[in-house]
């Protein structure tokens, strides 16, 4: 088996039973903000596009590049479609002309001659754009797991497919916190360090659980080449950003697991696996060039910025004309108010008005009343400032996922009083009837009815209130605070209160109290 890095989460897998093109992206994406790091334009895209199978892990545009696919990927290619609850990705692909679709089943292996594959989807509201997935591949000569951005909860079932020799996984997340937030600089720096630490912990959790012989960090970070975003590359010019690169993560991994084999996986990296043997070579960049990219990163990024402003200008020119404030308000009212009326759990979860300043338009989304109206001067706990051309473009394109378009562009500002509210950002990725109904039902089904487990001196519900992870495997308790290691969410066990966001309480009691209750009410 031969795996060639294509940049970001992209790879080209050549096996004894056929080749698979995964997540090919050149970009730029998210309104011209994200570029693959390092530059991957010089790859032979015509060669890689001529694969037997196409696998798009999810709908994020840093994994799904329609312009690149239209140019280099034939319409006849067989598409491995993850088993998602809504048809958004399939509809996107069919609109591009890709109709040779293989509907995979969640966690069910498929065989094509000597090639065996399995696509494992995740379907929670916070999994990418309402869905993320991983790809397992085995052809008899080797087995790999391409986890990319996904954070699977049931690793035991996933790993029953086969023991992966090579493991490809995200270590630098796609998020805008805390960079765009209205915060003092020292608070931004502190939150950025905490976020990087949480990402490292999550990545190490999976690396330890998968326990593959060879680990390849990938799926980020991006390059930010717009002038106003350039300072947020990597850890940021002022240590207020969250994007750990491959070399930095491998150094961190080496400290914690000194015997673990880790490799830099950049555009053109070729990994050959054959019955336990491995070789790693570079086909696009020399070792000296790779050293300069990572060790003199700011100079490399500056060269990329100065040479690619034409791409940024072309993206800006493609945006929609800015709508007049009254027209924009009317468009958003007619689009969002029917969704708000269907989203009872969203309305209760937000519990107030969210202010949005969009160019000359100042509006609020009044979640309790299911209304979109002009701002009336009231106090709000959450607010956004967004350029009017981004909103006008999303209205023109009827983009149903603003979390993974406008927000990931980082071309906006945000502020809040109090905690993060998951329901706000989930609403902004559910701007269609199918999505709002799916997520409403998903939340409704999360009322916990699972068994309890004992962790140290506490009895707690087995399933995490966030994404249903098995806390017997992912929880740590310190000073009465439970932390789920998958996403670093925390709960005060004495009160059951979530310390990371509004809502999502946990059921918990001290083990001695539980025994006393059972003694007082014995089961006949």
Main attributes of the structure:
single chain; alpha+beta; eight-stranded mixed sheet; seven-stranded mixed sheet; 17 helices; 29 strands; 25% strand; globular
Description of the structure:
- Helix 7 packs across helix 8 and helix 11 packs across helix 14.
- The strands form six sheets. An eight-stranded mixed beta sheet has the order 7-6-5-3-2-1-16-17, with no helix packed on it.
- Helix content is 32%, strand content 25%.
- It contains 17 helices and 29 strands.
- The chain starts with a strand and ends with a helix.
- Strand 12, helix 5 and strand 13 form a beta-alpha-beta unit.
- It is α+β, with helices and mostly antiparallel strands.
Helix content: 25-40%
Count all strands and give the number. Answer: 29
Q: Mean of residue pLDDT?
A: 93
> What would you call the quaternary organization?
single chain
Terminal CA distance: 60 Å
